[in-house]
Amino acid sequence: MILPGMAKDNVTLVKANGERFEGLKAVVNLRRIVTFNTDVKMESKDLIIKHLADGGQEAYLLLDVVLNKAEDGIPENYQIAVRKVAVPE
């Protein structure tokens, strides 16, 4: 179970239309991203850019976006199946 306090990765959501939402927090791993930032709609084919401590970046293509409603004390959250891709220029 992932809780909001565990979401420490700094990410930017890049919508398919190019719109950007910066300063989001998430838990990022190679196959899945979890975020409690549900005020921004996330959809398949959007990108999440993870900002690394050394100044680098990693990009993830959103494949399957599931919005989980608040339940059992866990706030509403997105659980997203992803694939790592090249960082866009």
SSE diagram, text form:
Elements: E1 9-14, E2 20-28, E3 32-35, E4 47-51, E5 57-68, E6 77-85
How many domain modules?
1
Secondary-structure-derived class: mainly beta
Mean pLDDT over all positions = 94
CATH class (first level) name: Mainly Beta
Assign an overall shape.
globular
Describe the structure.
This protein has 89 residues and is mainly β. 0% of the residues lie in helices and 51% in strands. It has no helices and six strands. It has strands spanning 9-14, 20-28, 32-35, 47-51, 57-68, 77-85. The radius of gyration is 12 Å and the shape is globular.
Task: For the structure shown, list the relevant keywords.
89 residues; mainly beta; 6 strands; 6-stranded antiparallel β-barrel; 51% strand
Briefly, what is this?
Helix content is 0%, strand content 51%. The protein is mainly β and 89 residues long.
